[in-house]
């Protein structure tokens, strides 16, 4: 499985395939896009979306490991797989943080340690989640004036402490 496939590969990728590479993101609608071409706000929203679904994604990963074409056989291999699956279920957020996709999404973004840059990124993410221009016209250009800014409800986009 290579993350270097070109955009011409128009088939949708499975979430498992996406999680194990760090170059591409496949939105629910629209074409696959390079992570390096995504805005920092889009990357933060995507990472938060994945983080909220860590338990579901870990369950899907465990199922693929247990019943996929490369499922182990033999007592020792099955015991090792059981340990891996138990760890996935016990700490899905930790597993997600270690995936190539999650790391690539957060790479280069400000951290809470850089309080000013982090606050600026969160403010832009909060605005973009409620911006009427984004919601109605689905355009990447916001022409809101400061009076039109709607900054409520964006705590849902802040990653929990220690999510990096």
Describe the structure.
- By secondary structure, the protein is an all-alpha fold.
- Helix content is 51%, strand content 2%.
- It has 8 helices and 2 strands, in the order αββααααααα.
- The protein has a two-stranded antiparallel sheet with strand order 1-2.
Number of helices: 8
Task: Write out the strand line-up for the largest beta sheet, numbering strands in chain order.
Answer: 1-2
Mean pLDDT score: 76
Order of helices and strands: HEEHHHHHHH
Instruction: Choose one word for the global shape.
Output: elongated
Quickly list its features:
164 residues, mainly alpha, two-stranded antiparallel sheet, 8 helices, elongated, disordered N terminus
How are the SSEs ordered, and which strands pair?
Layout: H1 15-19, E1 24-25, E2 33-34, H2 40-52, H3 54-67, H4 75-90, H5 92-97, H6 100-106, H7 115-130, H8 132-137
Antiparallel strand pairs: 1-2
Summarize the structure.
The chain is an all-alpha fold and 164 residues long. 51% of the residues lie in helices and 2% in strands.
